Amino acid sequence: MVTPEQIKQSLIQETERLGIDKIGFASADPFLELKERLIQHRKSGFESGFEEPDLDKRTDPRLSLPNARTIIAIALAYPTRMDDPPANRPGAYRGFFCRASWGEDYHHVLRRKLEGLERHLRELVPDVTTEIMVDTGALSDRAVAERAGIGFIGKNTSLITTQFGSWVYLGEMLVDIALPPDQPVTEGCGDCTVCIDACPTGALVGPGQLNSQACLAYQTQTKGFLADEYRDLLGGYLYGYETCQAVCPFNRGKNFTHQEAFRPDPEKVKPLLKPLLTISNRQFQQRFGTMAGSWRGKKPIQRNAIIALGRFRDKSAVPDLIKLLQDDPRPVIRGTAAWALGRIGGSEAEKALMEAEQREQDSEVQKEIKRALKNRITHEKQENEQG
Ligand code: SF4
Q: Which segments does the entry list as coiled coil (predicted)?
């Protein structure tokens, strides 16, 4: 008969064959401390709305798998640099998908790896019961990974590993057998506050405390109008935002490219902005559908592309933006196009905005048009004064 320690060691060996970068074992006891923090988080209004709403489910593994005894946590490292990134040029500006969206959707990749682990476990324990989770499961992947000794949760709320930094995807498998747990790591952020200081919206309201509503990564995924104060802060990001990770000293120089599935296609992760304005649903699915960053569909990506073109003041985008302002059935797209036209300025943009002001029925879009016309005058005034 195999002992729990032998099962654990056999699973650890199997990770090498499966291409899993880190594995850890944790008890499936409820996450009581986390529950307290989540209650406060909710009271403060800091939730994104994308989370599992049931806090008991989020913190008690046994509500996902009755009789759960152990959680097996895994991590896969993803790359942070492209070999030959296409350049940004006037008239051919590009946007950017965050690194957690490079290559194939990690949900699928991690699930395959966990299924491989599950098959191996079943050879050792044929009647084991399991439940696999990757990101969209009820539990907090980060809390599980921390308890399993994969890394520690930094002040930026990312799970940080010493080997790969926080550039890791996390997933876990609940099992109804007891396996020896690993010890949580003792390392931490210490006195560092670099991520808190670097966050452009103040979304990191304290160490390890994120106001998701103010987080730009979350804001890139919303489908409504992007609040005015965030538009100048996106910096070309079409999906996600990662300044709090990019500045972290634990991530300095980290670029692991060994996971083939996450290798970025430069034309997909740094796409030209203008073609995104006219892309059809089918084309969008064909081109971006296998990426994690496509999960909210094309609308938020298009909205963010329009904002980026406005920020770049790309005059060559004016005809396409005017067409959106005139014809697009989605108020968010018409209104954001109005904002971008106001930013870019020029007589053609101005004429289109004035015509739209006469025609537009949607009150939100009307507001955007009026503001675009007013701001355009302010910009021109500023430029004249500076010139
Ligand atoms: Fe911790 Fe500093 Fe990294 Fe923030 S930047 S997560 S404070 S080590």
A: none
